[in-house]
Design goal:
This protein has helices at 16-31, 46-57, 63-87, 119-126, 153-163, 197-205, 213-222, 275-285, 311-328, 355-365, 389-399; strands spanning 3-8, 35-40, 92-95, 102-104, 113-116, 130-134, 137-140, 145-147, 168-173, 194-196, 226-230, 238-241, 254-270, 290-299, 302-310, 332-345, 372-376, 379-385. It is of the alpha/beta class. α1 (16-31) crosses α3 (63-87), α5 (153-163) packs parallel to α7 and α8 crosses α9 (311-328). 35% of the residues lie in helices and 28% in strands. It has 11 helices and 18 strands. The protein starts with a strand and ends in a 5-residue tail after the last helix. The strands form 3 sheets. It has an 8-stranded mixed sheet, sandwiched between helices. The chain has a 6-stranded antiparallel sheet with strand order 14-15-13-16-18-17. Strands 5-4-7-8 form a 4-stranded mixed sheet. It binds adenosine-5'-diphosphate, aspartic acid (ASP) and magnesium ion. Adenosine-5'-diphosphate binds next to loops.
Length: 404
């Protein structure tokens, strides 16, 4: 008997028929004698619809109320999944995030998990029940409902797997695993059988939305080995863990694209010590996550700074910065929200030269202009025009010979 945590994403529980299929799958695992905690997302599209409705009634909805609203998406699917299991004779109970003891910090819409009190879940597992937990949500110390950031059901599953000391954690989605690029964009992409936390982390944070970034960080920190696989078939998926055999040999493991990016440009910032610190502290205080940063002092006395943010954060940056620039003695800020970020990732890059040159040449040959460049030990990222992002993904995938 093993203890297994399974997570089913939005498409996997997308309608009543899919929920019944998932229930059958859960029954299959339960019939093998395993203990089972199941995390489910909202039906696909529901979270987006709820956000659109919130914005339709108020331009800047309160984040507390947004969490209150978004948490309902998962509350629907936990109850329906439990009922579907009852319908086929499986004892199951549904839990909201709060009922499952998932305690978070106070940051609405992107809360971090602080602790999990797994006692109620453990009690029901011991009583032979399948425990169905709402993904993406928790409760803070003031008793307020919080959510864990988009794609946060992955985090719920991985954190619960650590908390209940699961033997196995399975992330069920609508593709067979983690691919060398988004299989919906790059037809020649192929499934990776094993990938390291570091590479998965870089792919996720660079836009491969198959796993939420924070969930992979959590898995690495608590050494939760997990498998990404499809709920639509029984094919083996991708195992994500610390060390994988081929690591150094493969130079580029995969390509990722994030289309939800914006570029913020500050021009004419006084070139003096602490100017950057003051600008980025103000952004951090406003919870704006900054990604690529380029500073250039082209003329004496003034600096230009360009950085990228998630598209949703651009307005926030534009709102926060003008008073800060005024205090610093000058500078103008503008945002451009037609940006995509393309990254190539691979641990093997540490020991291989020429990866950046090959990427730039491939994009150049395709006539795609590079707006910003950033590199780390195992990743090269460029910002390009969003309209060319799919083409750029295919060109990068081809040049590193990743196709099947
Ligand atoms: P779920 O609702 O199950 O959480 P998501 O939509 O969040 O599923 O993530 C799965 C999607 O991620 C796939 O349908 C695929 O289009 C996309 N994706 C992007 N990059 C990759 C990749 N490298 N490997 C697999 N899927 C990817
Ligand atoms: N329903 C949430 C979202 O769409 C969480 C998730 O699906 O993981 O972001
Ligand atoms: Mg997801």
């Amino acid at each position: 008997m093993a203890r297994i945590v399974q997570k089913y994403g939005g498409t996997s529980v997308g309608d009543v028929e899919r929920i019944k299929k998932v229930a059958e799958r859960i029954k299959g695992t339960r019939d093998e004698g395993h203990e089972l905690v199941v995390v489910v997302s909202a039906r696909s599209g529901v979270t987006n619809e709820l956000i659109a409705r919130a914005k339709a009634v108020c331009e800047f909805p309160s984040e507390r109320e947004l969490d209150m609203l978004l948490a309902t998406g998962e509350q629907e699917t936990i109850a329906l999944t439990a009922m579907a299991l009852h319908g086929i004779g499986v004892d199951a109970v549904s839990y909201t995030g709060a009922q499952a003891g998932i305690f978070t910090d106070k940051v609405h819409t992107k809360a971090k998990i602080k602790t999990i009190n797994a006692r109620p879940v453990e009690r029901d597992l011991k009583a032979g029940k399948v425990v169905i937990v709402a993904g993406f949500q928790g409760i803070n110390e003031e008793g307020q409902i919080t959510t864990l950031g988009r794609g946060g059901s992955d985090l719920t599953a991985i954190a619960l797997a650590a908390a209940v000391k699961a033997d196995k954690c399975e992330i069920y989605t609508d593709v067979d695993g983690v691919y060398t690029a988004d299989p919906r964009v790059v037809k020649t992409a192929h499934k990776i059988s094993e990938i390291s936390y570091d590479e998965m982390l870089e792919l996720a944070s660079s836009g491969s939305k198959v796993m939420q970034t924070r969930s992979v960080e959590f898995a690495k920190k608590y050494n939760v080995v997990f498998e990404v696989r499809s709920s639509f078939n029984h094919n083996p998926g991708t195992i994500v863990k610390e060390e994988v055999a081929y690591m150094e040999k493969v130079v580029v493991r995969g390509v990722a694209v994030d289309k939800d990016q914006a570029k913020v440009v500050i021009t004419g910032l006084p070139d003096k010590p602490s100017a950057a610190a003051i600008v980025f502290s103000a952004l951090a205080d406003a919870n704006v996550n900054v990604d690529m940063i380029v500073q250039n002092v082209a003329h004496t006395g003034v600096a230009d700074i360009t950085f990228t943010v998630q598209r949703d954060d651009a307005q926030n940056a534009i709102r926060v910065l003008p008073p800060v620039l005024k205090k610093l003695g000058g500078g103008e800020v503008k945002s451009f929200d037609n940006i995509a970020k393309l990254s190539v990732v691979g641990v093997g890059m540490r020991t291989h030269a020429g990866v950046a040159a090959a990427l730039f040449a491939a994009l150049g040959d395709a006539g795609i202009n590079i707006q910003l460049i950033a590199t780390s030990e195992i990743k090269i990222t460029v910002a390009v025009d969003r309209a060319r992002a799919d083409e750029a993904q295919r060109a990068a995938h081809d040049v590193f010979g990743l196709g099947k």
